[in-house]
Design goal:
With 597 residues, the protein is α/β, with parallel strands linked by helices. It is built from 20 helices and eleven strands.
């Protein structure tokens, strides 16, 4: 195999103030990195006094058996350090803040986080808008996208949606996103995982090309083939959280021979290293000897003076407003192309509205069907909440992985994403609820009065809004497996305290406080007031006006008294719903902030 020809396309490094390109050496150094986790049977040392240096222009591989600490080390170097990690990390002998560090280091995790409904080219265009400075011209941004596509061989799938491209193309697209921000240091966690040998070779060839462009490129590789290993310049070998070898690939075998570990002729060097570093092998004593020999080497990082970085500027490349506009455009495009979600939200509400209208046809003004009409009011509220919540629950966990990756890469703030998400989802929610309200209101024969129609619609709007934000809460808090179960169960529980299935004064005393935190209490009171309050005229009795047994409630006030809502106030109900919706927005924002960080 030969390295992939990239047609000598180069993505330039960060430019200096005078317009020239900074081609100085970039060095990532670390010393004394230790990490211990607590376990039931005692603490485990995941990383034990690791030190080393990775330099630009050379492609470095971190290898070792499973459980050796490869990904843990890369997480630390990527800027995602647990609180109990000890040690120091320097870039060009400078200590950086967490935000500045992540701005210089691109970390491509093993889990690929991409939005499936936008094309490869659109993905990179949005990445340019979010990851580069606002003053960058449109011509230069377009040129950057074209260069990255050419560099990583994405020309053939540039106009295909991400959901239909191959695994290798997804890996390369993930790498391309990181290239947009012109990082000096790039870290990759098993970029060849799940790929065949040919695709793996192509991906590592691209990484080698990136390293040759004066970048510091480090990759965790699991059991590479001989051809794949030859693409790397430097090797960092881990065993049980300790460094067994660090240095050039060419010097690795001779180093092990010095401690009595001889690689057989024509044997894959990577397989040899994995074999001797396995804790169950008899050569483990020689491995420990290698570790002690490596730990005795004094690193330059400990002898050179450390300098503090200059005062950093803004954490994000663009303004909050620019982030909001860009994320809103991206989210809207992704939502429009998510046909299943659109059908579930809009089509589902229209279809269910028609079914409800047929089932409860023309009962709104019939005094003999009061119970059926109040059932219609209750089930309408429940359906609006359920449809809006489930539609978000099914889609948001996937977006959560994208949010986590891009926020940690300093692309945008959580607030910008959150408000963009709310704005994008608000419009289809209004359209769907308006269609459901119009269909059901008139088909069920509710009073043809504009003020009552609008009051009913306002309650449905707030209820649907609650459903949407509650779905975001479930999707951001629980896993994709658990959220579709927890959210419907929670909604059904809240419906029980809405006032339809049991009147408020009939609840046992210790459960009555739950009434005031249930949105269905305010929603059901509000729609009941909209339909039967405000001096509604007498209802017609289809069984005859004198038959009190069939039509015991013939006025709006009688119906509200029967529901134990005669003292309710429509304005208070609207305000109560609005407060619950507002509180849920704060709760969801806090959940996002905690989960991402």
């Amino acid at each position: 195999m030969q390295p992939v020809d990239s047609d000598h396309v180069t993505i330039p490094l960060v430019s200096t103030g005078n317009g020239s390109t900074n081609r100085g050496e970039t060095k990532l150094s670390f010393s004394g990195i230790s990490y211990t986790i607590a376990r039931r049977h005692g603490p485990k040392q995941v990383l034990d006094q690791l030190s080393g240096t990775f330099r630009s222009g050379r492609l470095a591989a971190i290898i070792g058996p499973s459980g050796a600490g490869k990904t843990s080390l890369l997480n630390v170097l990527g800027g995602f350090r647990p609180r109990d990690v000890r040690g120091s990390i320097l870039i060009n002998d400078q200590e950086l803040s967490a935000g500045s560090y992540r701005a210089k280091v691109a970390y491509n995790t093993q889990q690929i986080a991409l939005l499936p409904n936008i094309t490869v080219k659109e993905t990179l265009e949005f990445a340019v808008d979010l990851r580069t400075r606002y003053g960058k011209s449109k011509v230069r941004k377009r040129k950057t996208v074209e260069d990255v596509i050419a560099l990583l061989g994405l020309d053939k799938c540039a106009h295909s949606q991400v959901r239909v491209i191959s695994g290798g193309e997804r890996k390369r697209l993930s790498i391309a996103q990181e290239l947009i921000s012109e990082p000096k240091i790039m870290l990759f966690d098993e970029p060849t995982s799940g790929l065949d040998s040919e695709a793996s070779y192509q991906v590592v060839s691209y990484l080698r090309e990136l390293a040759r462009q004066d970048r510091c490129v480090v990759s965790v590789v699991h059991q590479p083939s001989s051809d794949l290993l030859e693409l790397f310049d430097d090797i960092y070998v881990l065993s049980s959280g300790r460094c067994m070898y660090r240095g050039s690939l060419d010097g690795m075998i001779s180093y092990f021979e010095n401690v009595g570990l001889v690689c057989p002729q024509y044997y894959n060097r990577a397989d040899f290293v994995l074999k001797i570093t396995s804790p169950s092998k008899p050569e483990i004593s020689k491995v420990y000897q290698s570790m002690h020999q490596m730990e005795s080497i004094v690193d330059n990082i400990q002898s050179k003076p450390k300098t503090k970085q200059p005062k950093p500027g803004s954490q994000y490349p663009t303004s909050n407003w620019h982030q909001f506009i860009t994320l809103t455009r991206r989210s809207a495009l992704s939502t429009i192309r998510n046909y299943i979600l659109s059908i579930l939200r809009l089509g589902g509400l229209i279809l269910l509205g028609a079914m409800i209208g047929i089932i409860y046809y023309d009962i709104g003004n019939d005094a003999s069907k009061i119970i059926s009409n109040t059932a219609f009011l209750c089930i309408s509220l429940a359906l609006v909440v359920f449809i809006n919540a489930v539609a978000v629950v099914l889609s948001f966990p996937m977006e959560m992985t994208v949010l986590t990756r891009e926020h940690q890469a300093n692309c945008y703030s959580i607030a910008a994403y959150y408000f963009a998400k709310l704005t994008t989802d608000f419009v289809p929610m209004i359209i769907g609820n308006a269609c459901f309200h119009t269909i059901t209101y008139y088909m069920t024969g509710q009073p043809v009065e504009l003020d009552r129609f609008l009051r009913f619609g306002a309650i449905l709007l707030l209820t649907g809004w609650f459903g949407q934000i509650f779905g975001l809460f479930g999707g951001s808090t629980f896993s994709i497996q658990l959220a579709p179960f927890v959210v419907p169960v929670a909604i059904l529980t809240m419906v029980l305290f809405g006032g339809f299935f049991i009147r408020f004064n009939e609840l046992v005393p210790f459960l009555r406080p739950l009434i005031h935190v249930s949105p269905f209490k305010y929603a059901f009171e509000g729609v009941a007031q909209a339909v039967y309050g405000f001096n509604r005229t007498n209802l017609a009795c289809s069984a005859g006006s004198d038959d009190a047994r069939v039509c015991p409630f013939q006025t709006g006030d009688q119906v509200l008294a029967m529901l134990d809502m005669d003292q309710a106030d429509y304005g208070v109900d609207v305000g109560g719903l609005a407060v619950i919706v507002g509180v849920m927005h704060v709760v969801v924002y806090v959940c996002l902030w905690v989960k991402v960080r």
